[in-house]
């Protein structure tokens, strides 16, 4: 754990220094304290009276500290550890920066209407100088973003890459994009599986939700790594980020492909479902997940899961908030439709050899 904390602290410090130098900012953000990958203690559910009046649907909370600047962030959901951790990282960074941030989301990763409503509510209040968004798809929030841009609100894209061209056709633009390099994540996971089963093995991929760019990029990265090594990709199917669906998909894959040796899953929730299917089959099939959730790391340490490629959602969230604050200080005016350079957050491969270092 000490290694991870040190890695994350240095990563955030370097990220912010590079960002400020590249964009010519004069003010430096408060130095970040060490961060870990523990899950947020806040619970998801109905909006409480402590939440901003802008939030009339979805789930969320408000982090309030002294200061006049006010920001908002719309996540995909708060029902999984990944997004709970991101929310915690945002709120911790808000306290350090001395700003107020309202964090809201839809109820699930399928709640497109709920997420749109949350953003429309934020935009309509006129209270926020900058808003961060982690859209469910690359276009589902574009209309609301364009409306906000027309009112002078600056937008930061988080995790799911927005179709900048489609947004530009509506008159909207983005200031920055913060995310893990998802293609590299998929390549890393697939590469580890091949180390364990051999380059010529039969392999499969369990994808996320169809149309979700982050999942598609992980899938494409894994597919490229498998193909480059000469492995035989026998199947690739979506399971909508869901554990039960992933278990069913994996069961069918195992039944249809008796020589299957490895499955790469585009998140840990699905990986845990695939592990259940493997156990029931009685076969030796290696499974790799993505995200670095607590239960997945434990499963890796116990030898049930071959590996997980751990993202750092707390650092993603903290970095996004810092960029929002910077954009407001610069009085940034993003160009409509312009592509923005990704601010990449490094991922970490967790295997049985190092899993104990990351256990809580």
UniProtKB/TrEMBL annotation:
Residues 39-62 have a biased composition (Low complexity). It is found in: Cell envelope. It comes from the Bacteria. Residues 24-62 are annotated as: Disordered. Its main location: other. Keywords: Signal. GO terms for molecular function: carbohydrate binding. The keyword Signal applies. SUPFAM superfamilies: Periplasmic binding protein-like I (SSF53822). Residues 72-329 form the Periplasmic binding protein domain. GO terms for cellular component: cell envelope. InterPro entries: Peripla_BP_I (IPR028082), SBP_2_dom (IPR025997). Residues 1-24 form the signal peptide. It holds the Pfam family Peripla_BP_4. PANTHER family: D-ALLOSE-BINDING PERIPLASMIC PROTEIN-RELATED. NCBIfam families: PRK09701.1. Belongs to the bacterial solute-binding protein 2 family. This is Putative D-allose-binding periplasmic protein. It comes from Catonella morbi ATCC 51271.
């Amino acid at each position: 754990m000490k290694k991870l904390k040190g890695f994350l602290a240095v990563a955030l410090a370097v990220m912010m220094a590079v960002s400020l130098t590249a964009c010519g900012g004069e003010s430096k953000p408060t130095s970040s304290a060490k961060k870990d990958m523990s899950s947020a203690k806040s619970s998801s559910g109905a909006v409480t009276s402590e939440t901003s009046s802008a939030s009339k649907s979805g789930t969320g909370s408000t982090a309030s500290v002294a200061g006049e600047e006010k920001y908002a962030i719309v996540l995909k959901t708060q029902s999984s550890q990944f997004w709970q951790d991101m929310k915690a990282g945002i709120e911790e960074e808000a306290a350090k920066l001395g700003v107020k941030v309202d964090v809201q989301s839809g109820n699930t990763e399928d709640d497109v209407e709920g997420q749109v409503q949350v953003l429309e509510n934020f935009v309509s209040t006129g209270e926020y100088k900058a808003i961060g968004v982690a859209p469910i798809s690359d276009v589902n929030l574009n209309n609301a973003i364009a409306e906000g841009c027309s009112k002078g609100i600056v937008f930061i894209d988080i995790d799911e890459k927005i179709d900048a061209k489609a947004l530009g056709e509506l008159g909207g633009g983005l200031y920055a994009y913060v995310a893990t390099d998802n293609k590299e994540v998929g390549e890393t996971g697939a590469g580890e599986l091949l180390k364990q089963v051999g380059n010529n093995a039969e392999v499969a991929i369990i994808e996320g939700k169809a149309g979700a760019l982050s999942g598609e990029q992980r899938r494409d990265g894994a597919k490229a790594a498998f193909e480059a090594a000469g492995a035989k990709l026998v199947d690739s199917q979506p399971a909508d980020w869901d554990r039960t669906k992933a278990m069913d998909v994996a069961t069918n894959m195992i039944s249809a492909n008796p020589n299957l040796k490895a499955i790469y899953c585009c998140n840990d929730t699905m990986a845990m479902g695939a592990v259940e299917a493997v156990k029931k089959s009685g076969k030796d099939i290696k499974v790799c997940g993505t995200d670095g959730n607590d239960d997945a790391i434990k499963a890796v340490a116990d030898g049930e899961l071959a590996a997980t490629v751990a993202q750092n959602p707390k650092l993603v969230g903290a970095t996004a908030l810092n960029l929002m604050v910077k954009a407001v200080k610069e009085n940034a005016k993003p160009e409509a439709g312009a592509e923005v350079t990704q601010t990449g957050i490094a991922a970490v491969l967790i295997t049985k050899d190092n899993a104990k270092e990351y256990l809580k």
